[in-house]
Protein: Transcriptional regulator
Organism: Pedobacter chinensis
Amino acid sequence: MAFRKENHTKETCNASLNAVKDALYVLNGKWKLPLIISLQDGPKRFNEIQKSLGEITPKILSKELKDLELNEFVIRKVFSTTPVTVTYELTEYSGSLDKVIDELRNWGLQHRERLVAHRKAGVLEEAEV
């Protein structure tokens, strides 16, 4: 998406700024999108989610799950088994993030390739000197 000067007004700029700020407010932090991606293959229990994410602490995971539940991306289901079983799964609404996640994934892959290529080129230039 290229910047288009003809569509750039103070009103459209403010509307875009507010929309991005709203999105970042809901998806802030380094764990929310990875957590959503972790749940894309189906419901998981707390410990399964924690293992799939790696370095996240139980306290942070609990907070992030509550935030995602509050924003209607995740459903917490409690089953009356012994002991009680709790699972977390994505809502239908979470699918609205699919394009965002795909674009971030694509950009991340391109960015990593760019950095690796530039580092290799830098190493080659240093070797030639």
About this structure: The chain has one domain: 31-128. The CA atoms of residues 66 and 100 lie 21 Å apart. The longest strand covers residues 74-79.
